[in-house]
């Protein structure tokens, strides 16, 4: 399938960017989830994004967020209006400063067939991680910390326009990229699927 190169100026508030980079952790995420994407970012307008990184939920310039990306694709939720887009961003803004969700990120990896190898390699460790991820995703805990795609999926869920059928606490960048609710806008970095 072909691709379209787009300029960041074509992005709309609440567009979603899935990306990958050269870092070791990016490669590990791609291997565990069987995809070309390892990160999910929410565009909030004026060249800014909100994303969950190791420092927690932060607002940064898009250029910084994509600085080391080797691939970045913009997606847009179908059937959005300006008010709904603003609601998504407002929910994300309220989560700024929350810590990174390492348990959730590892638990989300278990939701893919490749991630289920944890149970094969170490049934006890795989089960322990799964139980920790379920506890982490409970109503009491789900908004305390975020990993990248969990943050974006949760803000859309709270705004009443889910972007995936997955529980946000188990949403991977791969699930975001293949979501039937999202349409491909274009490539910001790189040029193939």
Written account of the structure:
The structure is a single chain. The protein has 193 residues and is α+β, with helices and mostly antiparallel strands. The chain has a domain at 8-97 and 148-189: Alpha-Beta Complex (endopeptidase fold (from Nostoc punctiforme)). It has 8 helices and 6 strands; from the N terminus they run βαβββαβααααααβ. It has helices at 24-33, 62-65, 82-94, 102-109, 117-121, 123-136, 148-158, 173-177; strands spanning 16-21, 39-45, 48-53, 56-61, 69-77, 182-189. It has a 6-stranded antiparallel sheet with strand order 4-3-2-1-5-6. Helix 3 packs across helix 7 (148-158) and helix 4 crosses helix 6. The longest helix has 14 residues, at 123-136. It is globular, with a radius of gyration of 16 Å. The model has no long low-confidence stretch (mean pLDDT 85).
